[in-house]
Amino acid sequence: MTQTPTFKQIQFQLASHLRDPARAAPPSGIEDRRLQIYRDLFYNNVEGFISGGFPVLRSLTPDEKWHRMVRAFFSTYRCQSPYFLEISGEFLNYLQQSRQPEQDDLPFMLELAHYEWIELVADIDEDVIPTTGFNPTGNLMQGRPLLSPLAYVLSYDYPVHRISVDSVPAEPPPTATFLIVYRDAEDEVRFMEINGVTARLLMVLEEHPDYTGGDAVRAVAAELPHLDQNVVIQGGEQALKQLRTSGILLGTELKPIKG
After folding, report:
1. What order of strands is seen across the sheet that includes strand 249-253?
2. Nearest C-alpha neighbor of 151 from the set 169, 117, 127
């Protein structure tokens, strides 16, 4: 005697079919015309969020390849978050960790996808720029510079911020691209291209939470003995001031008074 499937079994069978119609049969007794409505609805919703999250990557990827990638993500990848706003991050994880590279992949695909995802992260980050705990006009060399919690310091082999349908690099330039993606006080997402020395300066500050701006600048200068130390120190101070003007550095940290 054939056992009637439970409602939960039917749900799982339908979900499997909607995720991968080519390999998973639908529950019996459902008209294919109705199934097609749901197949299109689910896939188009997910594909729409991914296309919106990676507009440049989408514009550079042929339709057949793009939908094959999204379909594979939709049918095989097990997302860790149920939220639509986090689909872009899940798709990036799929590209980085699960998808097998193909010969015709864009050489900068993963870097471009990461950059576009970071722009979304900065836009929806629930963190806020603090209004207390720092001196906005403090001496950046004598005090400790405070980095905005909405700033992301990034390094790429390719100039991902310049890539478009009209600018597709065939190979990476000889030097890396350093960027800061940040959300400013008006909640606008912006980016700033910086040089390797400024990127290293910010890294030193992160590595040494007790350093002042001057300590970090002098440490970076010591790593560049072939350059004029005074020029490097002056350049580092100017870089700190420029970062504060842009809102990437908020000022200098205020240390609590110990009683």
Report:
1. 134-135, 249-253, 145-147
2. 127
Crossing angle for the helix pair 32-53 and 63-76, nearest 10 degrees?
Answer: 110
Alpha-carbon distances, residue 190 vs 185, 211, 248 (angstroms) = 11, 27, 10
| Cα–Cα dist 145/138, whole Å | 9
pTM: 0.88
What lies within 8 Å, CB to CB, of 118 at 6+ separation is: 152, 154, 181
Phi, psi of 241 (to 5 degrees): -65, -40
Give the per-residue SS3 of 179-212.
EEEEECCCCCEEEEEECHHHHHHHHHHHHCCCCC
In a 10 Å sphere around its CB, with 0-12 CB exposed, 13-18 middle and 19+ buried, how is residue 150 labelled? buried
The partner residues of 254 in beta bridges, in order of sequence, read none
Tell me, what DSSP letter sits at residue 4? P
| Domains located in the chain, CATH noted | 7-104 (1.10.150), 106-259 (3.90.930.50)
Sheet holding 177-183, edge to edge: 151-156, 177-183, 189-194
Radius of gyration for the alpha carbons in the chain, expressed in angstroms and rounded: 25
pLDDT tens-digit series, residues 101-151: 999 999 999 999 999 999 999 999 999 999 999 999 999 999 999 999 999
Residue where the block lists tokens 């008006």: 186
Q: Residue 186 is encoded by which pair of tokens?
A: 């008006």
